[in-house]
Every structure is written in structure tokens, then in C-alpha cells.
Specification:
By secondary structure, this protein is an all-alpha fold. The protein has 13 helices and no strands. The N and C termini lie far apart (51 Å).
Length: 348
């Protein structure tokens, strides 16, 4: 196992035993080694405290050193082939989301979202040995997942650091004691794993040569990859454009836009880009799902969830903007010129 894979996966070793029952072999080997180690160390003179008769042993250190590799192997094995692979993937997301949620509850929906997707992309790329220096659909899909997650996580972090209203908005989410945030962090991590799961199933199929529908499936996957990259780039450009326009007018009462570029297509192209990206990921993975109900269920639930979140957020933002800016000539003219809210050229 490559070092970077171990680094990512080992951080969730405490949760691994709940996810890897079908992959018990690593734990059997571990138990045998631990038993031998303890037997040998128990009678070593250097481990005996003569005055108190107590054993001073490094068993706890040995336990940790052997548990971590075993857990990493088990999670990796589960992701490669086990029916509970989606839970193993969720544990990787939880390793990122949970610590960030302890810092700020709002990070579970923002920075934790982006960086968990990025981390799952890295883990899957390493576990399945996906080469990124070629133009295969699987490589391009993995690249899209990592680009999307890293870009979004960094953007949201920089925006919080540099825009006072966003910093205050994140702080307002800190309403629950830290221990009560754990269920939230775990649940959203599972959701993020559902959305990212098409890459896992596509990588599994590529490894076994079992991509469904032959040439047709290959075309579908390529279309999905193109949609995913298009959505990721649209969202990145729209986020950057909005950030540059609004940063110097933070908290102002006047409408300043943006109104140009991608914002001529619809009023919320960043939300459109996000929906398009995840739709592309789901489409790209679909040929590998076959008759696997888990694969279909995870992909459909993941996309349906993000679709609902984005369309709901669009309606709420439209309402806030109407309440704040309606009556201002610049805003009213913009809404007339661009009647599409989230779907380009579709009046809403």
C-alpha cells in the first residue's frame, strides 16, 4: 500500500471495525501476531519491575502499531470489493468532516464537504492504482473528483478568511455542543460518500474488466466525465467571478452583481455548475452499476439529495435578493434581462 493511501485510510482506523466484517482476514492475522508478541514480551526481563512486580510493557504501543495497518488493509479491501465498501468510503469522509465540524459546525457543509470529496478521490485513486497521466475516462473522472473537492474546499476557506460576512455566517452555525455535532458529521459524511460512490464502482468495474454495456457504456461514461468537468469548471469560474465582484462590497445594501460572464446565462450559475458536476459523476459511473442495487441506490440518493439542496438554496437566495434589492433599477433590469434562476435560458 502506498504511503499516501495509508495516511488517508489510517486516520479512520477507530471506525474500521464497524465496516469490515466481510474482510476479517487482516484481523485474524493481526490477532495471531499480537498474541505471539505479548507472549514473547511478557517474560522478557527488561519488562519486569522487580520492586513492584508490575510489568512495564510497550503493549499499547505495539497494539496501536499493528491495529492501524490492519484497519487500513481492511478498509482498502472493503472499498475494492466488499458490499460494505460504501461504509468504508464514508469512514474516510468522516475522518475529514468530523475534526472540522468540531472546530466549526458550519464546516460540515462547507470546507469539510470540499476536502472530504478531495480526500475520497485521492484514496480511491491510490487504492485502485488509477493513473492520472492518461486520458482514460476513469482517470479523467478521478481527476474531476479531486479537482472539484480541492478547489471547493480551498475557495470556501479563503472566502471565510477574507469576507467578514461569511466568517460571521460560519460562526452562527455553532449552536450545538461539540459532542452533539458527531451525528451531524457522520450523516453528512455518508451523504458525501454516496455522491462520490460512482467513482468507486467505476474503478471496481475497470479493475475486473466488467464495465457494462460494452462500447455503449464507454460512450455513456465519456459523456458523464465531460459533464462532470464542465460542471466543475462552470462552478469554479462562477464562484471566482462572484467573489471578485462582491468582496469589496461586503454587507452593502446596493446591488452590485455580478451580472456579466456566466451570470448572463442564469442568475446562479455556480449552483447550476454544482448540479451539473454531480449529475456527470453519476452518469459516468452508471455503466459500471449493472444490477447492483447498492450502487444504484447510493448514486440516485446522492444526486437527488444534492439536487434538492441546490434548488432549495436557489429559491431561498432569490427570496433574499428580492427582499433586499427589489426596487433598485440595476437589480430589476438584471432580473428582466436574465429571467433564468438556476437553469440557463429557462425562465423561472
Amino acid at each position: 500500500m502506498r504511503p499516501i493511501t495509508a495516511f488517508i485510510i489510517l486516520s479512520v482506523s477507530s471506525a474500521a471495525t464497524a465496516f469490515v466484517t466481510p474482510s476479517a482476514t487482516p484481523f485474524v492475522d493481526f490477532a495471531k501476531k499480537l498474541h505471539q508478541h505479548q507472549h514473547q514480551r511478557a517474560f522478557a526481563p527488561s519488562n519486569l519491575n522487580i520492586r513492584g512486580g508490575d510489568m512495564i510493557d510497550s503493549t499499547s504501543t505495539a497494539l496501536n502499531s499493528m491495529t492501524i495497518p490492519a484497519a487500513a488493509t481492511a478498509i482498502s479491501t472493503a472499498i475494492k470489493s466488499s458490499p460494505v465498501g460504501i461504509l468504508a468510503l464514508s469512514s474516510i469522509a468522516t475522518a475529514i468532516v468530523l475534526p472540522l465540524t468540531m472546530i466549526r459546525q458550519g464546516y460540515s457543509f462547507s470546507v469539510g464537504y470540499g476536502f472530504s470529496v478531495f480526500t475520497m478521490g485521492i484514496a480511491l485513486t491510490q487504492i485502485f492504482n488509477i493513473g492520472l497521466l492518461n486520458a482514460s475516462p476513469l482517470s479523467l473522472l478521478a481527476g474531476a473528483v479531486m479537482f472539484y473537492g480541492a478547489r471547493l474546499g480551498l475557495f470556501l476557506l479563503v472566502r471565510e478568511w477574507t469576507v467578514q460576512s461569511k466568517k460571521e455566517q460560519v460562526k452562527e452555525f455553532d449552536k450545538s455542543p461539540r459532542l452533539k455535532r458527531i451525528p451531524l458529521a457522520v450523516s453528512v459524511s455518508i451523504f458525501y460518500a454516496f455522491m462520490t460512490s460512482p467513482l468507486m464502482f467505476a474503478a471496481r468495474a475497470a479493475g475486473t474488466g466488467a464495465v457494462a454495456a460494452g462500447a455503449a457504456g464507454d460512450v455513456v461514461m465519456k459523456v458523464g466525465v465531460a459533464l462532470a468537468w464542465s460542471g466543475a469548471l462552470v462552478e469554479a469560474i462562477a464562484d471566482g467571478q462572484k467573489y471578485l465582484v462582491k468582496r469589496g462590497n461586503d454587507g452593502g445594501d446596493d446591488f452590485v452583481g455580478p451580472t456579466g460572464g456566466l451570470y448572463k446565462l442564469c442568475r446562479h450559475p455556480n449552483y447550476f455548475g454544482e448540479v451539473l458536476y454531480w449529475f456527470g459523476v453519476a452518469v459516468a459511473g452508471a455503466p459500471s452499476f449493472g444490477k447492483n442495487p447498492v450502487a444504484w441506490g447510493c448514486a440516485v440518493c446522492g444526486f437527488y439529495g444534492i439536487y434538492g439542496i441546490m434548488t432549495g438554496a436557489t429559491k431561498r437566495l432569490d427570496g433574499k435578493q428580492n427582499e433586499k434589492y427589489q426596487g433598485q433599477e440595476s437589480y430589476d433590469d438584471y432580473v428582466k434581462q436574465v429571467p433564468a434562476s438556476i437553469w440557463p435560458w429557462v425562465r423561472s
